[in-house]
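Memo to structure team: turn this sequence into structure tokens by end of day. - J.P.
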Amino acid sequence: MKSEWIEYDADVRAFNCYRLAENISAITLLKTQLKAFANSRNEFVLLYLEMKSQNGSANKDPAL
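Reply from structure team:
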């Protein structure tokens, strides 16, 4: 009976790891890190970079 509980416990851990990995993406990690960083400081500086093309016109919405 004891070995059955050990097997069941291992199955649950594997399932939980799979679900955790399924819900993590690069965007989610970035948002989490930015929120943690912003909450750890009293002042938060946001940089907005403006890209200019060769003809001198500014592109305010760069494609990422």
